[in-house]
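not sure who needs this but someone in the group chat was asking about Sugar ABC transporter substrate-binding protein from Homoserinibacter gongjuensis so here u go. i didnt clean anything up, its just raw.
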Amino acid sequence: MNTKKSIAAAVTLVVAGALVACSDGGTGGGGGDNSNATCTNKLVNTDAPVVTMWAWYPNMEEVVDNFNKAHDDVQVCWTNAGAGGDEYDKFQTAVSAGSGAPDVVMLEADRIPTFQAQDALVDLSDLGYQDVKDNFSAGAWKDVSVGDGVYGAPVDGGPMGMIYRTDVFDTYGITPPTTWDEFEAAAQKVKDAGGPYFASFAANQPAYVTALMYQSGAQPFEYDPANEGEIGIDLDSDEIKGVLDYWSGLVEKGLVGTEDQFTPEYIAGVINGDYATYLSAAWAPGYLQGAGVGEGADAAVWATAPMPQWDTGNPIAINWGGSAFSVTKQAKDAKLAAKVAFGVYADPASLDAGWKNQVIFPLNLTVLKSDEFQNYEVPFFSGQQANKEVYVPAADAYTGMTYTPLGQYYYSALTKQIAAINEGSTTGSAAADALQADVVAYAKEQGFTVK
């Protein structure tokens, strides 16, 4: 099984699961014929050719309207086919069926290789990439690339920082730790004084833990579709064992919580002051406020600082999350679809609305370098210029990750190992060894040659 076709078949097994049926007209699907597509938005120029799009950004209708008003040569017909997994299931169904996909689809960066391996996405290298290349950092482009191909137009990202409660830090005489050793020492000081958990190590957030691995200098995967059927897997390296041992030590000492994040119980704990810090991405303030954090008793207590480092002399910026627009192989006109992918969330009005309303953290360098964005006083952080102090430097320094078609299986396997660490049934190093064996075995079962 050393051909692209075999790999695509294997990858289909990874993501297929319980797929949901989708109809072409009901979800705005394209599949090369947009004449019957149903749009959520209203087209401005009904005589122009139409490009169908699936996307779930909260302000997507406004973004599409901005694009359509500015273009007489093409119109976007947009539908929200579901957020994240719901959309991916529908897209997978369309890919497997060979019809029913939109021309342009919103994908998180770590999902791109899965669909690229199935020959479901168009390489944008010669379809406008060169015209917008300088608008984004090298790290942003790496995240949407597979090998030498570019399979997405970057929109938003998640440069990471350490959100913390100023009231907790003031009560226990803590200053923002700059190293992980200082982080543990501060956590121990707070615990010894009867204070809250210093952070959480949640099993249901494998992408966040993977980012921590990269920060230690690890390179968990090597993957290039040009080396057909080969994949490098290095999940039991000293760097990864060091990260997992560090966090398993914090768990064992009772310094961090182990509850799942993004649950009502977790949010209640954040509001109640059960955690001194929240290690997260630049999109976190919008998410937290949407969940009710920062109102009432916990208002005006939040600030942010750069992520602690293993080596302050060699800091490594990391990222959690980020999405892009990809052109599907079912697009009727790939060149026109690429124009939409690169342009639909790139105008100043849409970008301004996105970041000012905390819908996205934009990766467009024009925005990142602007005085307005740099000097913005973030209300959630009581007027702190968090972009300038934390998130823009992290975005600028971020060099990207290597995603693979096995990403979703890897996340599932890592989740199991973190859960085992949290329940005390394994050590960090042993978890890394088990993770390596699990993912390698799975890759071989799917027909990959593991380097």
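also DSSP finds 19 helices and 14 strands in the chain. if thats useful
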